[in-house]
């Protein structure tokens, strides 16, 4: 039974995007995630969705998209990392 779990990929969070903080804080964390991704090949960032701060996080991500493009960084679902 234990062997069935060995095939399940497991990732550790690198960055938490706290949408309760100002957008500038979230942008700083997104840049940290980008730096980690450039160094390690990927970074795992999680954050709030919905009314708990999702709007701030979404705005920060939207603002960072041109910089991500310049740095050749793609945003993907975590399930896509193992493909």
UniProtKB/TrEMBL annotation:
It comes from Acetivibrio straminisolvens JCM 21531. InterPro entries: Divergent_DAC, Glyco_hydro/deAcase_b/a-brl. One of its GO terms (biological process) is carbohydrate metabolic process. It comes from the Bacteria. This is Periplasmic protein. Transmembrane segments: none annotated.
């Amino acid at each position: 039974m234990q062997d069935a779990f060995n095939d399940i990929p497991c990732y550790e969070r690198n960055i938490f995007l706290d949408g309760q903080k100002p957008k500038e804080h979230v942008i700083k964390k997104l840049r940290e995630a980008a730096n980690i991704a450039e160094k390690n090949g990927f970074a795992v960032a999680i954050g709030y969705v919905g009314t708990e701060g999702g709007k701030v996080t979404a705005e920060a991500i939207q603002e960072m998209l041109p910089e991500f493009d310049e740095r050749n960084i793609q945003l993907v679902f975590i399930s896509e990392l193992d493909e």
